[in-house]
Design a protein that fits this description.
- The complex is a heterodimer of chains A (256) and B (401).
- In chain A, a hairpin with a 5-residue loop joins strand 2 (12-19) and strand 3 (25-32).
- Chain A contains 8 helices and 10 strands.
- Chain A has 2 domains: 2-89 and 243-255, Nucleotidyltransferase, domain 5 (2-Layer Sandwich), CATH 3.30.420.40; 95-237, 2-Layer Sandwich (Nucleotidyltransferase, domain 5), CATH 3.30.420.40.
- Chain A has helices at 37-51, 81-92, 132-142, 149-154, 167-179, 184-203, 223-231, 244-255, and strands at residues 2-8, 12-19, 25-32, 59-65, 77-78, 98-102, 107-112, 118-123, 211-214, 235-236.
- In chain A, the strands form 2 sheets. Chain A has a 5-stranded mixed sheet.
- Chain B is globular.
- In chain B, helix 4 links the parallel strand 1 and strand 2 (67-70).
- In chain B, helix 6 (92-103) packs parallel to helix 8, helix 10 packs parallel to helix 12 and helix 16 (319-331) packs across helix 17 (346-363).
- Chain B has 2 domains: 29-177, Rossmann fold (3-Layer(aba) Sandwich), CATH 3.40.50.11890; 189-400, Rossmann fold, CATH 3.40.50.
- With 401 residues, chain B is α/β, with parallel strands linked by helices.
- The chains are: A alpha/beta (256), B alpha/beta (401).
- Chains A and B meet through helix 2 and strand 8 of A and helix 18 of B.
């Protein structure tokens, strides 16, 4: 019996198939988000199935999560990304007590009970600053690939101070910094710092380790170090941190 | 006609609702009913008196022959107009009310012979100064140290001053007897509304929280409304919904008032698997928990006592709110607490610290703080947080069973 999790995020769709009995991952994949959310999700889902020699009949249950979860027509149930991320992380790193999740347009802080269930959570509300979108804006502006950002930031001697609370104004600020001769690596380091600072204000003074860092932004090199420096705490990134939501959804699908 | 951004009338009609001419239908026409009542009263020479806070003692207005009508704005549509004068980063309730004032689209404000204002919060206090440029406003000073006997004496004095103001302005005598009469009417209204709220204590409540919220009126003491409250208690009291209501997550809502037109967050909660079984705020139980002794020797003091004990976040320290929440959480068997704060409402926003602590450490209930305004732009994001809260609450349910 196969259980599937579909995480329809704001920037990418992730699908994870697991074996319902062994709870081992059978297949997983990612597609950039587009206009037709539902079609893309099904395309990816079907591709993963055929690559694994499976058909839709083999899938007992599908849980959708993420920002676009209500638009996934093949889902049997929807569960929020909060619960799914917690479930995915509990599977991979059962000791985790805090999860920092930074996605395309979201940043979240989850506090977990010792048994891995959610105790409290905070999310960014009306603003996408402090999310992956911010990194995309700076990469675009500097005409570099997202994955080069970490290396660039590592070369920074003096991270630029980005003070704007708004992603649109921050972009203006970045243009201004570059125009006034700031080194691109200092701007990148400044943006990374600005994102993790936003997270640290959600954390406040009480942080229970171990801290796990998930979401697509955890894949961007340099972010882990930036997060550790503002939290003052070691941070663990699970393998494929962008898939924890979909994995959690699949695990919850297997349980029901 | 007053605008309304809510879709209350259509949203609440669930399966099993009594069809025609139910008390819910009556209160769906609440604004029209109030308008008819106020217009007729005014034609008979009774003054219409606007109020904007539960601290305003309605009984004094009624004893002076006046019709007290709530002016709190719940529409997002009037806010852009208000922002011509008021800062954008201000409570939407204040801005909406002020927008109605500028646009002249709240018929009750337009017919008001007087607005009884109070210094409940800084935003309202300063807004009233602007409103007073073109309308008759009388400001009561509300002291804020709830347990200080001198503060209470000051409040008693404020009630005496309001009585004198009403007598002089409307050329009437406000007798103790007329105050006792008004106390009787208000006690009856409060007790009926309490009994309606208590219907939600059931395992499978007969109506939704949104419906309970709709069973009230902008004008207190309208005889037809009181009859409808009684009918509602009779009709819904014996009714029990099947499975659906008992599987929903029981929510205790606290924080700011959700005035007419501003029911959005409650709609989100009840459309995502929750049931607001108790509203502790000013549009719920907070102002109706306590009655006034109509036979007290000094009826003004008795009145002042009831109003002064309303546990608004402007009070310091406001320990009555925490005691009340503790009691209501148990009585209504809440499974989680949602603490709603209007944008820039500093007092409620800070006081959330105490509410969160109560929920987390003492009651051990999942807690969600929502800060928002009247714009629907964050509805989807609020829904995610509300759903996640319910998933957590259901998780504790299955752990317990």
């Amino acid at each position: 019996m196969i259980a599937a999790g579909i995480d329809a995020g704001s920037r990418a769709i992730k699908v994870v198939l697991i074996d319902g009995e062994s709870v081992g991952v059978v297949a997983s994949g990612t597609l950039p988000q587009g206009v037709k959310n539902d079609d893309l999700a099904q395309e990816l889902f079907d591709r993963l199935l055929s690559d694994s020699g499976l058909t839709r009949q083999d899938v007992a249950r599908i849980v959708a999560t993420g920002y676009g979860r209500n638009g996934i027509s093949i889902a049997d149930a929807t569960i929020t990304e909060i619960t799914c991320h917690a479930r995915g992380v509990r599977h991979l790193l059962p000791d985790a007590r805090t999860i920092v999740e930074i996605g395309g347009q979201d940043s979240k802080l989850l506090r977990l009970n010792p048994d891995g269930t959610v105790y409290d959570f905070a999310m960014n509300d009306r603003c996408a600053a402090g999310t992956g979108r911010f990194l995309e804006v700076v990469a675009d502006r500097l005409e570099v690939d997202l994955h080069e950002l970490g290396e660039m930031a590592a070369r920074s001697k003096r991270p630029a101070a980005i003070s704007s609370m708004c992603i649109v104004f921050a972009e203006t600020e970045i243009i201004g910094l570059l125009a006034s001769g700031a080194a691109p690596e200092d701007v990148v380091a400044g943006v990374q710092r600005s994102i993790v600072t936003r997270i640290s204000s959600m954390v406040g003074r009480t942080l229970t380790p171990p801290v796990v860092f998930t979401g697509g932004v955890a894949l961007v090199s340099g972010m882990e170090r930036a997060l550790e420096s503002v939290l003052g705490e070691r941070v663990t990134i699970p393998p494929e941190p962008h898939l924890t939501g979909a994995l959690g959804a699949a695990l919850l699908a297997a349980r029901q | 006609m007053r605008e309304c951004s809510g879709s209350k009338a259509t949203a609440v009609r669930g399966r099993g609702s009594p069809a025609q001419d139910s008390p819910l239908d009556w209160f769906d026409k609440m604004i029209d009913n109030c308008l008819e009542y106020a217009t007729a009263a005014r034609e008979r020479g009774r003054p219409v008196v606007g109020i904007m806070c539960e601290y305003a003692p309605r009984e004094l207005v009624m004893a002076a022959g006046g019709v007290p009508v709530c002016l709190c704005g719940g529409s997002a549509k009037t806010i852009p107009a208000a922002e011509e004068h008021l800062p954008a980063n201000l409570c939407p309730l204040i801005k909406s009310t002020y927008g109605y004032h500028l646009l002249r689209t709240n018929p009750f404000l337009e017919m008001a012979d007087l607005v009884v204002a109070e210094t409940t919060c800084d935003g309202k206090k300063k807004m009233f100064e602007l409103m007073a440029e073109s309308r008759p406003i009388y400001v009561m000073e509300l002291p804020q140290k709830q347990d200080d006997p001198h503060a209470f004496e000051h409040w008693v004095f404020e009630l005496h001053k309001l009585r004198a103001e009403l007598e002089e302005r409307f050329g009437v005598e406000v007798t103790d007897e007329s105050i006792r009469g008004a106390v009787g009417v208000m006690n009856r209204e409060r007790s009926l509304r309490r009994r309606l709220a208590e219907l939600m204590k059931a395992d499978a409540p007969p109506i939704t929280g949104l419906q309970v919220l709709s069973l009230k009126s902008s004008i207190s003491g309208i005889p037809a409304d009181l009859e409808q409250y009684e009918r509602a208690i009779r009709m819904y009291g014996g009714l029990s919904r099947n499975g659906d209501m008992s599987s929903r997550v029981r929510v205790l809502l606290t924080g700011v008032p959700t005035v007419y037109g501003a029911e959005r967050v409650i709609e989100i909660v009840e459309n995502h698997g929750g049931l607001v079984v108790c509203m502790e705020n000013c549009t719920g139980l907070k102002p109706i928990i306590e009655d006034v002794d109509p036979d007290a020797d000094d009826v003004i003091r008795a009145l002042a006592g009831k109003y002064f004990r309303i546990h608004c976040a402007v009070m310091t320290r406001n320990s009555r709110r925490i005691e009340c929440l503790r009691k209501l959480a148990a009585e209504y068997r809440a499974e989680c607490i949602i603490d709603l704060v209007w944008q820039a409402c500093v007092t409620y926003d800070i006081e959330s610290y105490h509410v969160r602590k109560l929920a987390r450490h003492e009651l051990r209930l999942p807690y969600l703080h929502i800060e928002t305004d009247y714009s629907p732009s964050d509805s989807a994001r609020i829904a995610v947080r509300v759903e996640a809260l319910f998933e957590t609450a259901r998780g504790s349910r299955s752990k317990a069973s």
